[in-house]
Amino acid sequence: MKLVVQIPCYNEEEFLPSALNDLPERIEGVDEIAVIVIDDGSADRTAEVAKAHRRVAKVVRLPYHQGLAAAFRAGVEAALALKADIIVNTDADNQYPGRFIPSLIKPILENRADFVVGARQMDEIKHFSYWKKVFQKAGSGVISFICGSEIPDATSGFRAFSRGAALWIDVIASNYTYTLETLVRLSSHKVRMAHVPISVNPPTRSSRLMGTTVEYVLRSTRDILTLIYIYSPLRVFIWLAVLFGIPGLVLTGRFLYYYVTLTVLRNIPTGFEQSLTVGVGLLIISFFTLLMGITSNLIHTNRKLLERLVILHSKDRE
Ligand SMILES: Nc1nc2c(ncn2[C@@H]2O[C@H](COP(=O)(O)OP(=O)(O)O)[C@@H](O)[C@H]2O)c(=O)[nH]1
Ligand SMILES: [Mg+2]
Prior knowledge:
alpha/beta; Spore Coat Polysaccharide Biosynthesis Protein SpsA, Chain A; 13% strand; binds magnesium ion
């Protein structure tokens, strides 16, 4: 059983050594632990510091700065190429204590799950503001709803993947984060998920990803909407079609009701032509929205087939 720990980094020369020193030397049930550092075009000596550290098996250097999502993906690819059975992702700022790695991978070792999130105990984190905690919990609630399984900390970067789950990973919706998309993507492939409680080390520096709470909320909302749109296009278009269709039906029905009860039965001129015009217009929009939904669903299905091809191809390389 080989465990690969991957650490995506951007300008982390200062804190990376403490994160590396914190990683466990041995874990029960694991024969080999290899550490990969992904340097995302850092302007400092991150790559040199990583190369000089005895725990680091491989340094992946992106040719230029591409963002956390690209670095994460490059790490997963490198870990699979190193024949990892389990991949753990952790942060370079030593936010997640290495001593939790054994409990993080336990559900995978026991074959109870293929993907495990290390869930921070929000109420115990003193350096998160009240509102950050509220929005963090609300966001995790929305993601849990979309994924259909309970994920108490959707933005945690402390995660473990079995090899089978890691093969499905890709990030296409965002440049700066992989956290939400991997959850939605893996749940769409019915990967078994679990979470284990963890505590975090006090912050070494301020977060580079979060920004202000308002920024965080706006970005997360945009990310979640993009994910729904990418991963369940039919659902989005059906709701849009319903939005136009219901008033369309009501207005057309109104016209027909008066037309039948007044004009047909009692020969009185009806009026209500505006209802007919607007109603039919809305029904036409609704119909074409539905057609667009079906088309985008076909494209979505096609992408799933392509993903399967990629996986077949990567299995060939094993
Ligand atoms: N590759 C890459 N990693 C980044 C980037 N920004 C942050 N990171 C890494 O992502 C991890 C978390 O970053 P951090 O600023 O602590 O964000 P936090 O999740 O809010 O704590 C660290 O390992 C950083 O080095 C980036 O632009 N590119
Ligand atoms: Mg951090």
